[in-house]
Every structure is written in structure tokens, then in C-alpha cells.
Amino acid sequence: MNKIQQFIVNLYPTTKFLIVLFLALSAFITPGYIWSYLVLPICMFLAYLAGCFKEFSNLAIKALLLIVLFIFLLQAFFYPGQEILWQWGIFSVKQEGIQFALSLTSKIVAVASSLLLFFRITKVKDLVSSLEKLGLSPKVTFIFLSTLQIIPEMQKSTHVIMDAQKTRGVETEGKLMTRVKAFVPILSPLVLGSIASTEERVLTLESRAFSAKGNKTSLYQVNKTKHDLKVRILLLILFILLIVWRVLS
Amino acid sequence: MSIISIKNLTYQYPTSEEDVLRDISVEFESGKFYAVIGANGAGKTSLCNAIRGFIPHFYNGELQGDVLIEGRDIREWELGELSTKIGYVFQNPFTQISGVKDTVFDEISFGLENLGVEESEIRSRVADIIQLLEIGHLQEKNPFELSGGQKQRVALASIIVMEPEILVIDEPTSQLDPQSTEAIFSIIELMQKKGKTIILVEHKIELIAEYADYIIVMKDGKAVLQGNADDVLSNEQAIELGCALPQYALFGIEMKENGMDLGTIPLTEKKAISAVQHLLEKRRVTS
């Protein structure tokens, strides 16, 4: 891990959040759509510095492309306007629609890519730890963490159930209809099984003194460093400059 | 003085139609090893739940009679308080994971974190337990990725680290292979030597014969037979009540029926060998 990467990854979760918040807000403060679209490459650059360029880009492009394209088409064709650019039967692309679609999608791209970046460069463990420090109840953070851990577990048990149902002759592969039909015999044991195992999970938690009164300690700690303060001050200055520039221009 | 005393306990789950525990009276003394045996559905797990306070605190329903932990009524204890007094480990290794920790080390420390123990103390206590139970090779692994037997050892470690005086262990080995079973029992033996009171539900009667001081046989929600291990396991009546006897005891009973009285009913391999040697020597002298 090089120095810059370490610097970004080791920032305190709320500092990271302030960075992406600044990026998202700047998209709304600056007029036009060019800067808002630029937020995505900026986020990609930050992701590159943090050493997760590939994961971030894949996720961001996959998630955003479809939404942006869909909104663009809908708005271009159906936004009310006079200036017709292109027509085919009753459908027509209007200038106003394109304008609106540009400003709408650019904001979506900015907000979504900065949020995606946040979750790419912040470990959930760190986030939860900092939230707990802010005074969030351990019960809430438990739900947060356990959900994330249990999803892969449920995936595993889905495969087990699928195999079990296959051996009983339930067709799970093939045409769409066969797959839909296989849904019920797979989903119902999964859901019922998960509900049944919550009882034992409660017993486990109780056995580990989860409901004990008094303050809990935590082995895992995230700490603010002097870098956090620097980054926060820098962000504040940039934000003020941005607002001043917007008011004056 | 008994550490847990149960008097005329009768209980019914809110969803069940009849009583699952009927008029049970048992005294548990500190530092002894108790085994609870009986067929499936006899109420063994319910008895464990009543001792741990999950009945009535978690399952609700009405509890008749008394369950006293250190002389104090179970209804007055809070579940959180009991967790440092009574450790509870149960059958299914897969649900005995907190689900919020990435490594076995953190998983074992979860209970102590909840109790608010100082960080440095947590680290040393968890390290001690890991060494004691010989699971050092697992400590950096993700608890979800362990095998059933490893998970069960981690579950035991997570409870033992909280240093409860009483351990309630409900069929810990019923889903495990022979090697893992052996590993679990060596941990239980370790706890026995440390002077913990152990209440174990188990079907493997040979292992019970080896460790238990006192045996409670349950049937249809009743404690139909109880007494010192030697007495219960050599009692032919126990077979009629649906509990299996160790093969050495069966051997002894069979020998007696065939006119070759061993003098005692042996319970373990060692005792059986010495009893047979004794018999053979006696025969040699008389012939």
C-alpha cells in the first residue's frame, strides 16, 4: 500500500463522508451539468488513489448506465416542449426534454457516484464503530452488521436448498416458467428456516450477555488523526469559496 | 448447599397444548457433573431453558413451582445478569455465532465486550481461553467459514471466557463426528476439573458413564429416575424407561442372568476388564 492510498483509507469515516457530501453538494451548487458529470471521473480518480478503481468503476458504470439511459430516453421523448429536434410518428425528441434530462441525470450521477465511492473506501466495520461513538445504540449497529454478514450465509443456504430440491425432482433450470415454478419450493424453506433460526440466534445473543446493562466495550476502534482535521478544514475552505463564487457570479 | 434447586416445576409453552415439564424436583450441587438423558421430546431442552431462565423470560408462558438460582427465584433474575452466572451452549453449531465478527478471536471476545470488560483484560482472557482449548490455529479465521465441530468449540470458548460458574450444555455433540465429539468432551472434562457445575444433555451413554456424577432420566416431561451415576446406569429399570445403558453395564447384567455374576455391574471398559479378571481368578481358585 502506498502513502496516498494509506492516507485515504485511514481517514475517519465521517471525514470520508464529508468529502463525498462536499462532492454531491457541489453538483447542486454549481450551475449546468458539466461539473455534475465531472463528479464521476473525480470519484473514479479518488477510487484509483484509494486502490479500488476497478471495483468502483465497474459498480458505478453498471449501476448508473441503465438508469441514466432510461431517464434520458423517457425525458427526451415525453418532456413537454416546443422545439422538436427529431420526429418519428407520434414520438418526438424535444430540446427542452434533452436539457431537463441532462440536468436531472447529471445530479443523479453525482450523488450516486459519490455515495458509491463512500461505501467503497469505508469499511462497514469502521463506519459502525464511528456511529457507535456518536451514540448510536448497539442494537441498531448489530442489525446493520449482522444483515451484511447474513446475506452471504443465506446465499449459501439457498444453494443447499436448491440442491436438495433438485434431488427430489424439482426442476430448477431451463425455461423461464420452470424457474418461476421452482421459486416456491426454494424460497419457502429458506424464509421459514431463517425465521426458525432467529430463535436460536436470540438465545445465542442472550448467552453472550447482549442484553446486559451498562456500557459495552469494543476491541475494534477507529481513531481520528491529525490528517482528518486538515482534510476537514480544506473541505470547509473549498465549500466557502464555492458558495462565495456562486453568489458573486 | 445446592446452587440450583428446582421444586415441583411444571411448565407449558404458550403454543403447546400440554405441559412439557411436569412436577420436576431436582437439586444441583456446586461443582458436580449432572447428566440429563431421555428420549427426544422428553423435555430435556425445556429443563435446560428453565435453568438458564429462557423459561419464563424469553418463552413466556406460566411457570409453576420454583426454580431457585443461588436461592433467588428465577423470575427475579434478569437474563443479562444470568449470563455471567450460567453459560449456555446448545446443539446447533451454525446458529451459535454472533454474526457480527470477522474473526474467531473477536467472536470469543463478543460476550466480554457486552459486559463492558476493559480492553486489555479482554485480550488476555481471550488469549488464555484460545490456548486452553487449543484453537490457536483458528483465531484469525472467519467464524462462518469453520466446520461444525470447530464452530462448536468456538461456541464453547465464547461461553467459557465469560467464566460462568454453571455450564448448561445441551446435546453439544449430536451433529458432530467422533473426533470433534472427543475434542468437545475434553473441553468439558477440563471445566469439570476447574470445579464448574456442569449440566449436560447427551445421548452418548458411554461418555456419560465416564464423566457424570449424577444422572437425571426424563420421560414425558417428568424426571422419572435420578440418582448417582453408578446406581442409575446399572439399574435395569432404566432400560424400561427408554434410556440406553452403557454396553459394559449390559454385559454385566447379561452375565448375571446367565449365572456368571461379576459381583458388580461395570460401567466403563476399565471396570469391566477388572471385573472379568476377578471372576476368572475366582473360578481358577475354585476349580
UniProtKB/TrEMBL annotation, chain B:
It is a peripheral membrane protein. The keyword Nucleotide-binding applies. Pfam families: ABC_tran. Residues 4-245 form the ABC transporter domain. Keywords: ATP-binding, Cell membrane, Membrane, Nucleotide-binding, Translocase, Transport. GO terms for cellular component: ATP-binding cassette (ABC) transporter complex. Gene3D superfamilies: P-loop containing nucleotide triphosphate hydrolases (3.40.50.300). It is found in: Cell membrane. GO terms for molecular function: ATP binding; ATP hydrolysis activity; ATPase-coupled transmembrane transporter activity; cobalt ion transmembrane transporter activity. Belongs to the ABC transporter superfamily. This is ABC transporter ATP-binding protein.
